[in-house]
Amino acid sequence: MEQVLNQNVIDAVDLKHKKHIRILIITGFVFLVYLIGSILHFDLPNLAKKWNKNRASMFMLDIYAHKDHIKMNWKDPQKIDVRFEGGHRHVYKDDPTWLIRNKNNQSTIVNFDNGGQFVFFPNRVEMRNFPNINEPFIFKLNKNGKPYVDGYVGKESMLPSWMRATENKVEVRPSLYERLQVYGSKVEVHRYELGWKYFWFDFDSPLVGKGFLDAISLMFNEDRVDPKISNFNLVVNEFLENEIWHHNTVLFAMVETLLMAILGTLIASMVGLPLAFLAAYNVTPLSSIRFFLRRLFDMLRGIDMLIWSLIFLRAFGPGLFTGIFAIAFTDTGTLGKLMSEAIENTDKKDKEGIQSTGANKVLQHRFGIIPQILPIFISQSLYYLESNTRAAVIIGAMGAGGIGLHFLGALMTGNDFENVAYMAILVLVAVMCIDTMSAKLRRLLIGIEDKK
Amino acid sequence: MYSDNILGFETIEKNLKAMAFKRLIYSFISILAILFLLSSGLTIAEENNAGSFQRGLSKFFDYPVDLFKEAFESGWRWYAYVFKYLPDLITTINMAFFSTLFGAIFALLLSLFASKNLIKNQYIVTLSRRTMDILRSFPELVIAMIFLYLMGKSELPAVIAIVIHTAGALGKLFSEAIENADNKPIEGLQSCGASWWQRVRFAVIPQVVPLFISYTLLRLEINVRASTILGFVGAGGIGEALSAVIQFRYGDEIIAIMFLLVITIISLDYFSRFLRGRLIGDNK
After folding, report:
1. Beta-carbon separation of A302 and B60 below 8 A
2. Quick one: closest CA in B to A450, which residue?
3. Is the complex ipTM more than 0.85?
4. What is d(CA B147, CA B230) in angstroms, rounded to the nearest whole number?
5. Rounded CA gap, B253 and A200, in Å?
6. Residue B204 domain-assigned (yes or no)
7. Residue B64 included in any domain
8. Into how many domains does chain B fold?
């Protein structure tokens, strides 16, 4: 017997399909309009214009390079000093090899790797031998004590694009790595070099200039550098007390942030689980308790972590407790709600089986419910640990301390971008470590889940 | 045969007891570890906190009480401010909505390349997974602060930061959903001669789209919170308004803004749960 579909049925299906398509097109259109409108509203097309190019290039340069400042005062031209990053206390005791002082004609030469030179004389600064720059530019002061470029007075517009002369300042930047600023009072040269200098050991440290591997081998070397303490302690101390990179503050702040996340999540899961039992209808017969707990969870969750951290900031002051409790309060709500739902979804049969053996209520819950929810509980807690690591950085920046606050501080100073990058990388590494560890732990404890 | 069985039972019982003992030891060790972590962590916290725990605990209600007191003293008219800050709230929600949508589009593209059953080239899959991991790992705040510094105060840095984070986080979930899609409907359609597009349209999309939408809705909820916080550090919207009134200590306005935030988050929570329930069909 051949079965023929009723034409009415086909029509009905067709109609429904057409309706679906129509709804899809309309929603798609609405979203498209919204997307375009919002792109215009948030000014995405002008992204390039908003981008502060100077700041961005300084930022990028500072991240992967460091600079030495060479400064000369016009009043005292013989006293030229070299400072690391212009720091007050970071004056080089011995001249670097690229700085040559010529006693005969009272000049000082700053050499660059590309062969270029800035030469200081008591009354002028010369620019020599830079690649692709044939003209030897000379910078001087006029009678009124204002800097000018020799031969270009009144013809400032003819200067090359990498040089800018204004009334009080001449700025010369042949490439990103060399910079000369001539003021009425002083001349300053910035000499950039690649790399994070003094990352391992500080300027004044006895171990300055040693790399990571040198330091490790020194640690296990018997010959003491400083007879008073062992090499191991010396290396660790000198590393932590690095004044430029502040390793001990930064690393401790990172530990603080991790502690906030771990303790916050731990407290949340330890408080949340028992409350979840009390909020589940198959455990707690009293509906009033259930209702109260449900609203409590909603409240804890609904008052955002931001608001909680503000409240705790007032009570505990800046520090770990603020972060821990802000995380613990918010996530007690979330975990409590999730777990109470999981408990209500458990299979009744397990519990009934235990009940039939004559076990009491506590044992029924212990063996009838907990084995069913434990995998969910562990994996959820670990997920929250992951997201709380990020949250702890954020709460920290809003005042609770930890690496977030240091990050904000370094960014706000406007010239410690290498520290900003260092902390960003540290955060990235920490977050990735926590993610990997929690994935491993989840696999270890639950076994089957996410085996991919 | 019979005696073998007896021996077997005994061995089984012995093994079972050994296993139970091992488990007991493991649980004991992990409980000890957790307790140790908790106590040592709290000790470090106590040592390095600005104020002590006990004093802080007694001051727990200070801030809320202060706020309400101030609101009372200025005539209990904080609800009037609710309307004043409504536009800021809408800005924040719009920021979150737009960046969720934009991030979801990126996530979709990334997830297509990160799914083993769609892309056969192992390197492309690994590369796009690592990309998503890195995008996901930076807290929004870190990216937002850097962009805020480089671009000046506006909403755009926050949007960019949330888009980056959302693309990574959703991409991972999306690609998992695609990989977990059941193969049988695809085979079924193939067996009756459906084309590639028809297979994707009627076998893959119906399986993954409800999941996609549900994940995106969850993300929207998270992003509303995130955009509030980013506002707090200078990206506009209700967060910035909150940080301003907190600096000037206008109790009634703070209450109004907090009220708005809490209501928004709770209603968004219920709304997204309702929608997700309808989409996946397990509304609880």
Report:
1. no
2. B176
3. no
4. 12
5. 49
6. yes
7. no
8. 2
